[in-house]
Prior knowledge:
The protein is an all-beta fold. The protein has one domain. Helices cover 0% and strands 42% of the residues. The protein contains no helices and 7 strands. It has strands at residues 9-13, 16-23, 31-39, 52-53, 65-69, 72-76, 84-88. The strands form 2 sheets. The chain has a 4-stranded antiparallel β-sheet, with no helix packed on it. It has a 3-stranded antiparallel β-sheet with strand order 5-6-7, with no helix packed on it.
Amino acid sequence: MTGPRHGLAVAAIGESVYSFEGAAKPSRTASTGIGQALELPPRRTQPATTWRRMEDSPLGRQFTGSTVASGVVWVTGGLATAAVKSYAQPPLP
């Protein structure tokens, strides 16, 4: 990850792990829309590859919930919002 992420949401599809939004520090005003992905290699003793930046969300929020259904990641709620955003097969750069 590119930096600290407080209150982020995570989800996994296949061999990829995704992180959504969060904040650089514990604060209601520090929320971000940053999305990142980590593609996991087959299990070996070597470390995973590095996180890659995805398209940012138009919402900056933290303490969201996330789930995966039929290959779609759903990110819901957060501090002071009831917004729902879906990511169908989140793109890897």
